[in-house]
Input
Amino acid sequence: MHRPLLAAALVTAAALLTGCASGDDWSKPRPSPSAVGVLDAGFIGTDAPPAPESTVTPSPGSWSGVRPSPGTRVVLLTAGHEEPTKTLVTAVKEWAEDEDVDLRTVTASGSADLLPAVTRAVDMRPDLVVSAGNDLIDPLATVTPSHLAQQFLVVGAELAEPTENVTAVDWSGASFRGEGLGMSSTYDPASFTGARCAAAVRAGAAAVLSGHTGIVVWLDEF
Output
């Protein structure tokens, strides 16, 4: 190849690489994401903000007017291959695609990787970590109190003693709260339907984006 052609090829390749990197680089500072829209009055059901660790039971669809600003950085943290977990993962990915969320996934490779996986997700410094999979509850309970600036959303389970940066979406067929408490007597894998999981992700994200964190969003009706 002649030198002018080689030089041109190198410049073109460098430009392409730079373009890809600039879109994927989470290390660069940027404005914090914001909620686009507001919650309906039926989401909280009271004039006062919910107290930490309290449970709110929103009216169906009261979260549908809230969405993340484009480019919100989210890490999907997942573990396990059970059908409920798979359904939750699908719901998160579809929500991210619909709402122009910049989504990355951290998957724990096994029981020994659960705690490191949570740490990897936090180290990426996303706007929100969304957890899917009961195996992650105990590791999250260990890590989240030390990272209060990082927001977490747990879907289909909850932490027994959450800090203000951990929001959960739960329902009667879910409610796993860690190995020490065991599985809820009402646990029902069939309750993890695609429609419920989709609603749970949207309701939980709307709560976090609207500043209602550290609570449990109870979603028997959606």
In short: Helices lie at 3-24, 83-98, 114-123, 137-143, 194-209. The two ends are 63 Å apart (CA to CA). The mean pLDDT is 87.
